[in-house]
Amino acid sequence: RNPAGRTGLSGRGLLGRWGPNHAADPVVTRWKRDGSGNKVAHPVTGKNILQFIAIKRKDCGEWAIPGGMVDPGEKISATLKREFQEEALNSLQKSPEEKAELEKQLDKLFSQEHFVVYRGYVDDPRNTDNAWMETEAVNYHDETGETMDNLPLEAGDDAGVVKWVDITEKLQLYASHSYFLKLVTEKRGAHWSEDPGPGCLE
To answer: Which residue numbers delimit the Nudix hydrolase domain (predicted)?
Structure first.
């Protein structure tokens, strides 16, 4: 039964299996840079702005992290890479040669230092009392920006559009994706909010 309580929906709903349905969300980031290659800081907070690769979902039109479901027996690390290739690089439509080239570039990115942003239950519109989503969100950060420069972004599979998007709290994203991005900005000391929060009254 759903660990977060009752949803008012019974059965599996739109989800593939009873109980937890496992997903993987690769958060691929780089620093926003100007024409000269310098990092761009936010004018209010002075913190550098992070960008992430976002897809616009075909099903609901919302911007999201290019993740997807873990196949039975698949390692999470494999899912993260596969989903990113399918949704952000349109790998399903590529020739074997093009695929091999993408694979080589991606290995560089996915073998760099990364961290698990979040692991566990997620609030998802598809959750029911008997089936729910759990995800592992992992941040792969291209510090110099050089690895990702060579990758041709192209929407594929469930994605309508794919592009680099500046991370701020103003983003309206699918499900819990904004929360994952906030955790990434905290970890990397990047810009998130213009509002200084309580405790700064004159």
So the answer is: 31-187
Cα dihedral sign for 121, 126, 128, 132? negative
Domain ranges of the chain: 25-188
User: What's the pLDDT tens digit per position in 162-201?
Assistant: 999 999 998 888 778 999 999 999 999 999 998 765 544 4
As a whole-number percent, the residues of the chain with pLDDT over 90 amount to: 56
The residue behind tokens 């009392």 is 129
Measured at the alpha carbon of residue 72, what is the angle toward residues 68 and 73, in degrees to the nearest 5?
Answer: 115
Instruction: Let me know: does 137 contact 178? Beta carbons within 8 Å.
Output: no
C-alpha to C-alpha distance for 154 and 171, rounded to whole angstroms: 21
49, 32 contact by CB (below 8 A): yes
- 97: DSSP letter: H
Of 184, 195, 105, 199, the closest CA to residue 146 belongs to: 105
Give residue-wise pLDDT tens across range 114-131. 999 999 999 888 899 999
The fold of 25-188 is Nucleoside Triphosphate Pyrophosphohydrolase (3.90.79)
